[in-house]
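User: quick one, fold this
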Amino acid sequence: MDTEKTLLKNFSQAELENFAQSKGHKAFRGRQLFQWIWEKGVDSFSEMSNLSKPFIEKLELTCNLELSTVHQVQTSETQGTSKFLIRLNDGRFVETVLIPESRRVTVCLSSQVGCALDCDFCATGKMGLKRNLTSGEIADQLLHVRRFSERLITNIVFMGMGEPFHNYDQVIKAANILNADSGFAHGARKITISTSGLVPQIRRFADEGHRFKLAVSLNASEDQSRTQIMPINKKWDIAELVKACKHYTETSKNMLTFEYVLMQGINDSSGDARRLKKIANQVFCKVNVIPYNEVAEGYQRPSKKRITTFLDALEGGRFGVTVRWSQGDDIDAACGQLSTAVQVEEA
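Assistant:
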């Protein structure tokens, strides 16, 4: 009877070193494996030229390098953004986005198939949660995009499908692969993990001393509105969330980003801006205002005049403000729009 092959991409570098030793080889062979898989991005064991032929033959018999394949790529004709529909080995799909800009190239990674948080304005939340991704499945998305991109990838954000902190261990493991010198060698400060406000995980992230950047989706300045659009606010309200954010910045000494998706008639009044200013003044942070990309019925992007009025009301705060006009809305690749129409295909 055939035994299931070992999926090496789900191993950290340390785990691959232990794996190599368990097969009777030196630990450095595991480091070489890690480097071939992620830094060099090879598709087969036969390409690993500094491994012995018997070791390669054993790997081919007992191990597997394939976790996912690119099913479809859509590229925006107006903005250059590309959306990748990636098929996982179990037949499910996730989406990944490549965002080329003048001074940087960003990849937006998914951490789950779907999402359990059911934010009312977000397409991914309407899918529900199908399952978590493994660290290898997360990092594999970057391999696919790197092969496609004509430019060097400079920034990585965990802002695709799913709530990264609901899959905390695998997301941190994947981020470490992206950061590792023998992996993708991306600087920790060029990797951003986003959360909708899971307070225990924010505190854990701070206490564990991770150097990756943190973004928190606030999206409202008072509890009634936030609970309406983000049910997680019932569990941890804005006051609890702000305490956790302050713990993060005070413990890590790192700046935090508050993401604020601006929606007409929901969170875009001058009063909302004044309350947001009061919240942000309490935390070492910047505020990233994201005019809404229309997905859900009942939610709309405010007019440019109303956006300008909102931004004017934030002036004078002890924090920086940026406006992110999301790329790729014409191919449903912008913030909040990721949702796989094909949710599962027979393996």
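User: anything notable?
Assistant: Residues 331-344 have pLDDT under 50 and may be disordered.
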